[in-house]
Amino acid sequence: MPFTYEYPRAAITADALIFRRKAEQTEILLIQRQSAPFQGMWALPGGFLDMDETLEQCVARETEEETGLGGLQFEQLGAFSAIDRDPRHRTITVAFVAWADENSLATAGSDANNVQWFFVNQLPKLAFDHEEIIKSAVKKF
């Protein structure tokens, strides 16, 4: 079904914050981006909403495509809408939180060169506004 509008529209994405407890510490799963923007940088798994899916379906699909993890129970954290958060265009993301089993193994899939667990207090430099999103989740949970 084609859409035409007289003015630009924002794109919508869903991002996944996947945590696990390991050795009395909390870890978060990040992907290393395969493509621009921020190629080679670490980021949350996630991606653009398809026209025929819900945000919940989007975050589950993107997580499985990029990390190989499926069957996670996601809880919505909130929306992040800074005007300049994505250099490509106006993008609003809805972030979701899930807890994985402490022995969960992830494998890099589409759009990811690598996937790795990081302690939340020892994060690498992150793409987009993902550091802000993680801080928001850590504060809440």
Quick rundown:
The chain is of the alpha+beta class and 141 residues long. It has helices at 55-67, 130-140, and strands at residues 11-22, 25-33, 42-43, 46-48, 75-80, 91-99, 112-119. Strands 1, 2, 3, 4, 5, 6 and 7 form a seven-stranded mixed beta sheet that branches.
Arithmetic mean pLDDT = 94
Could you state the CATH homologous superfamily? Answer: Nucleoside Triphosphate Pyrophosphohydrolase
CATH architecture: Alpha-Beta Complex
In helices, the fraction of residues equals 10-25%
Rounded to an integer in angstroms, the radius of gyration calculated over CA atoms is: 15 Å
Proportion in β-strands:
25-35%
CATH topology, by name, is: Nucleoside Triphosphate Pyrophosphohydrolase
The overall strand count is 7
Largest sheet: 7 strands, mixed
Shape summary = globular
- Low confidence ranges: none
Number of helices: 2
Look at the structure and give the CATH class.
Alpha Beta
